[in-house]
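forwarding from the other thread:

> can someone predict this with pyridoxal-5'-phosphate?

sure thing
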Amino acid sequence: MSFLKHIKPSIVKLEAYTVKSIPLSSELIKLNQNENPFDLPEYLKREIAEEFLLQPWNRYPDVFPSRLIEALSEYTGMPAESIIAANGSNELMYTILMTIVSKGTKVLIPTPTFFLYEKIVNVLEGTLICVPANHDLLFDVESIIAVAKREQPSLIILNSPNSPTGQMISMNDVERIITETDAIVLVDEAYIEFADHPSVLPLLKQYDRLIILRTFSKAFSLAGLRIGYLLAQPAVCSELLKPKIPFTVNNFSSAAAVKLMHKKELILERILYIKTQKDYLYRELSGINDIKVFSSQTNFLIFQVKNNVKLLFEKLFAANVLIRDVSSYPMLENTLRVNAGTEAENKSFLTALKKYL
Ligand SMILES: Cc1ncc(COP(=O)(O)O)c(C=O)c1O
């Protein structure tokens, strides 16, 4: 008898995570994971490493990292009891969904969106309710509210700005969704630092059905060290902490995140650079015949091509330009995603793209 008979059917049905591990090299132009193109400056890395050397490695870190939470409290203006930090925001996504979703629990997501929401709902055997974006890939707020009123989901997940579409939902519309439905509303703000519009943070004071998710993987250049955090009212955090895996934030990553929150100028300078480069990519892509590019409130763009998208992706990759093929997402046929890199990387991408189109 196969071991498979003991594996939950909801897991057997899932597909494995498929981001290819591609060895980093100086020739590779890597614009596929919406990362920050800039590593930390060498002097900062050394400062963080030296601090880490002074810590005892044989001891557990804080069960919930108090220094990091303190720094996040100062950075966000929220009380410590409203903050939970973790080993990346993906971990918190699991924590939040584990807290809310059991077999048959309805979860509403606007689509297309970040793949992980659907995957966790499936792992937990929840029921997914998808509300497609409108034709310009904007959030269809009226439909989200109408469907939520009809279906009564326990959770609505809004990724704002959204991956992979780059579109944002306004604070006003998020407030409408909270007040006109009965659901907990999770707003994943992984890309908020690149947006021209504000975070929904001010709504937290008023609403206990709002949870905000943030990450250090994008604007803060820390994807490799894995730090994410959530913001919610203290009573909500108390519930979310119950199923949370303890000790997931290690001392090293925590020290790095604390250090970075004290380097606001460096972070802001990089955000500005990345936004300028994204605007440059947008203008250049708009000027190419046969490409339809979508505006974006993030550090990446999606664009639709007339060519065979898989072949184009492979040709770019063979030329050492790695972007993301998002053509299997709903509504995104023939679509590719590219994140803003350095100016030189973006120019190389555009040159290769024009050559292979
Ligand atoms: C929408 C969204 N949320 C969360 C994450 C990942 O966050 P983390 O690296 O903190 O786990 C990503 C990364 O690509 C993302 O696109």
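The chain has two domains: 3-40+265-356, 42-263. thats all i got for now
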